Amino acid sequence: MNKQEIYDFLKQQHIDFEITEHPAVWNMEDVAQLEMPHPEADAKNLFVREDKTRNYYLITVKGDKRVDLKALRKSEGLRQLKFASAGELADLLGLYAGAVTPLGLLNDESRTVTLIIDSYFLQPPALIGAHPNDNTATVWLKTEDLLWFLRSHGNEVLVRDLPYVPEE
Question: Could you read off the pLDDT of 49-106 as tens digits, one per residue?
């Protein structure tokens, strides 16, 4: 799905959402330069896979946090996690680096990618910002709506209190 197809899908599902169009952002430093309507809902997404397997995970955390991948691996009983390649990102989710988003799971035809999302996004106001498969816009929607339609799509969705690397 491209950006317009994401918007159309959300409308067809009767999901309330807000769109913020902006210049292309490639990382959280770029996002920090923008005036966003819901900075508390900024999300950072990591596309990883288990070493020596084809188990893929999209990890969604608060934009200003760094997830402790080693602690996450241990708590979930996973093999060592490493970042998936740009080719794997394109093949599985139809995305490119800089546009990684939970909405990309709608392109996961084999339903092989598991979303691991920080429980932070379920706390009030329970909103999340996600690229509509394009890094020139952010869609703001209720986290519960996102989780509902991704589960309905057939992807596994895990809500966790994710471990963070301590701030220095």
Answer: 998 888 999 999 998 889 999 999 999 999 999 999 999 999 999 999 889 999 999 9
Q: What is the CATH number of the domain that holds 88?
A: 3.90.960.10
Per-residue pLDDT of 117-144, as tens digits, reads: 999 999 999 999 999 999 999 999 999 9
- The residues with which 58 forms a beta bridge, in sequence order, are 47, 115
Question: Does residue 114 contact residue 157 with C-beta atoms inside 8 Å?
Answer: yes
Residue bearing tokens 């991948």: 69
Nearest to 92, CA basis, from 125, 60, 54, 65: 54
CB within 8 A of 80, min separation 6: which ones? 50, 51, 73
Query: CB neighbours of 152 closer than 8 A, spacing ≥ 6?
Result: none
| 121 lies in some domain | yes
Domain of residue 141 covers 3-160
Is residue 165 one of the residues assigned to a domain? no
